[in-house]
Amino acid sequence: VFLRGSPVARCTNMHITNKGFSRSNLSQPTAKPLLPTAMWNESCGEQLQDFTRPEKIVIGVMLAIITAVTVMGNTLVVIAVCVVKKLRQPSNYLLVSLAVADLSVAIVVMPFVIVTDLTGGKWLFGEVFCNIFIGMDVMCCTASIMTLCVISVDRYLGITRPLTYPARQNGQLMAKMILGVWLVSASITLPPFCGWAKNVHTAGVCLISQDFGYTIYSTAVAFYIPMLVMLVMYYKIFRAARKSGAKHRFTDLSRRERLETVANEALRMQGLKPPGVAEECAALSRLLTRERRNISIFKREQKAATTLGVIVGVFAVCWLPFFILSTARPFICGVECSCVPIWLERTLLWLGYANSLMNPFIYAFFNRDLRSTYRDLLRCRYRNINRRLSAVGVHEALKV
User: Fold this and answer.
1) What's the pLDDT at 314?
2) In 3-state terms, what secondary structure has residue 40?
């Protein structure tokens, strides 16, 4: 239960025990609460968690593992694209930007969040660094989300307009898109430094600005608009894949009928060698070539739809609860403090951070080249890595 009102009214003459609040304890300095389970932040009225040592060890180890795996996975993406020639394509520059954003979250944000969580939610690094920390957190997380949005648009245009969409072959254009992502992220980070909205940084509290206008602007640009774009792109790719699937089935039926016709004609006129047989064979060859191309497009669209569906699903599960909470908090709690239970706020925050952990593994799951590169890098097999990847590609092509 969180008390509303002035900080003095919330915190004066209150002491928490396992039995509740007691004013009489003020006259008994020697009285000690039995098994305290929470503390109060005297300036903001937030209920802080009071963990036992075993609980701190378990929580610290779990959060440290999440951070370490996030660093490892995103570092592998950056190294893979930089080292492997086959992956060094403009279309993969977005993956590097995404990995850099997620890696920044793990390196410059998560360690401070871990320390804050282990102290029950109390900020220990001062008011000046509070603004810097919030800026880094907002910018890196927003860059990660915005990059996912741009990747969905890139996948859609690459599938539906393979001949007219130039970004996949133009590294400069892709670099401009990445720069735009980081500039948009900066547009959300800078307002608290420019006087529009002030972050909450009283003693023991470090909270992003709860200004109503800034909250709506930041959550819309950082999450709701990218989420809407990703859903639209997924729907368009899914619809294109369904149309391609229907067309593929129709073409496949026509091809079978054509094969049967040509085969019967060839058998009927076997030994006569009329001139029409050669034309029929040439037509059959063209038909098979076109069919292979249709199958290739169909498989690519199906893969893109599946990949983007998983990305959108994981992204929504990880970030949607946190942003709903962030949007509603100032309207429920006011602009001065947070009345949300610390455990709920921190759980949803780490659920969002988990998206940075999952991104590199999602792409590796759907990309054979990334998987092979990951295995080679983890086994320290750096020599001839490009040759082995090329050999795998040739082998797969021969199997098809």
Assistant:
1) 93
2) strand
29: CB partners within 8 A, 6+ apart:
none
Name beta bridge partners: 20: 17
Contact 74, 95 (CB under 8 A): no
Q: From CA 158, how far away is CA 301, in angstroms rounded?
A: 10
Torsions phi, psi for 367 (to 5 deg):
-125, 110
The C-alpha R_g of the chain, in whole angstroms, comes to 29
**Separation CA 52–CA 116 (nearest Å):** 15
* pTM, full prediction: 0.75
**Helix, strand, coil in percent for the chain, rounding step 5:** 75, 5, 25
**Three-state SS across 279-331?**
HHHHHHHHHHHHHHHHHHHHHHHHHHHHHHHHHHHHHHHHHHHHHHHHHHHHH
Domains and CATH numbers, the chain: 7-36 (no CATH), 47-366 (1.20.1070.10)
| Positions in the chain short of pLDDT 50 | 1-43, 45, 250-251, 253, 267, 270, 272-273, 392-400
